[in-house]
Amino acid sequence: MSENREQFSSRLGFILAAAGSAVGIGNLVGFPVNAAKNGGGAFLLIYAMFVIAICLPVMMAEFAMGRHTDKGPVGAFGALSNQQSGWRLAGLIGVITPFMIGVFYTVISVWILGYLYMAATGDLAYLASEAAFGEYINSPTLFLSMIGVAALIFAILKMGVQEGIEKASKILMPSLFFMLICLVIFVLTLDNAMAGIKFYIIPNFEKITASVVNGALSQAFFSLSLGMGILITYGSYLSKKTNIVSSAKMVALTDTSVAFIAGLMILPAIFSFNPDVNTSELSESSVSLIFVLLPKIFLALQASIGYFAASAVASLFFLLVFFAAITSLVSIIEVPVAYLIDEKKQSRKKALGTIGVFGGLLTVACALSFGMVAFLTEMLNYGGGTKSMFDLVYDLFYETILPLNGFFVCLFVSYRWKKHALNKELSVGNEGFEGSLMQRYVNFSLSTFIPIILLAIFLNTVATKFFAQPLF
Ligand code: PHE
């Protein structure tokens, strides 16, 4: 099996692919706003600490499980537990989660492509109008954009690991870095940019509450694509020569740097648009920021640089977000595809077809749940409000289940697969690992406080989201 499994061709290719997965909409808009609202530099410090102390060991464990078994979540949990059904179930949740995240993330990527098209073809003024977002997400033209996104994802995934995922990441990720830097430089020349930077960076420890700490850890967890089965699957395409520990550090560093630098773009933009902005009123939601506030900011630029240049800046921004979304989508859809290939023995083409049909139907249903179909728009009532199908998928799979999946990974590698076996895999390609401080930290943290913290966050999120009763 392992001889003919496709692998990433180089360590750099692997790091770019994993970073491509990690760098997503969450980094570019979610993180900056979260940070600005919740204590600026104080939030940044806590976030960085969580990335290093909690997320990195989990990331290493996921990579190690995948590489050791040459399998995705179901296969890896199964193979390492003698096919115990309980653990296979944990693996199965690790495949359903990315499949469902893929569904709602596709919907957002479809909107982004639509906005990119409209900004680039002279419709920025319309996008900045109050009605635009509500109209666009309920317009049939949406489906044209959906076809575009689906075709692109399928074209990449059909080419497989090296020619598809790795090649796309090698093109899209450097372009993304370049566009991000260009936008930061431009935004820093705007009036009042410094006020935004100050707000972003100067620490305000008074804002740090239990819920902010909880939010920082959840943000770090999903920003690094943990608990989604992705890193197990990507680990299974990893050669035995690769040093997992140092690669994981590079992925985490890239993801965190992009999130941080994105703040240097978003906050000065917000402050130059409105110097008196009250950040506590900024919506937490990335969606309303991207599709409602930012188009207004881009349009306001026309006073100084003209409509054409303002449209160019807006298009560059949407292209940047689109690239980030595509590499994340590719990684997340690869998980169920790899599952069908490995466990159900389907060809890559057939697996893509299967996921295309089922995922496509659910994606269309989610896209229709913003008003086009009443039953999907008002599907359920929980957590103190009426929820659409999109809300349900988002709340369940993005907001809630990731820490639980992480919790399973920690317990599994520490107590079922066992620490010495994990250490052995982490030592492959990294001889100095055994006996190092890192090894002791990874073993200790994964078997003690990390799973406890992840479980606490999971329970708190369930209580908050579904019962409107936060525990802390
Ligand atoms: N890390 C991604 C982000 O920040 C999360 C993600 C990864 C979402 C893969 C979907 C698919 O947006």
Describe, in plain words, how this protein is organized in 3D.
By secondary structure, this protein is an all-alpha fold. The chain has 21 helices and two strands. It has helices spanning 11-22, 25-37, 41-69, 73-79, 85-120, 124-127, 132-136, 142-158, 160-188, 193-201, 210-223, 230-235, 244-273, 286-300, 302-343, 348-367, 374-377, 389-416, 419-427, 437-447, 449-467; strands at 380-382, 385-387. It has a two-stranded antiparallel sheet. The protein is globular, with a radius of gyration of 22 Å. 52% of the residues are buried. The site of phenylalanine has 14 residues, from helix 1, helix 2, helix 5, helix 11 and helix 15. Phenylalanine is lined by residues 21-22, 24-27, 101, 105, 222-223, 225, 328, 331-332.
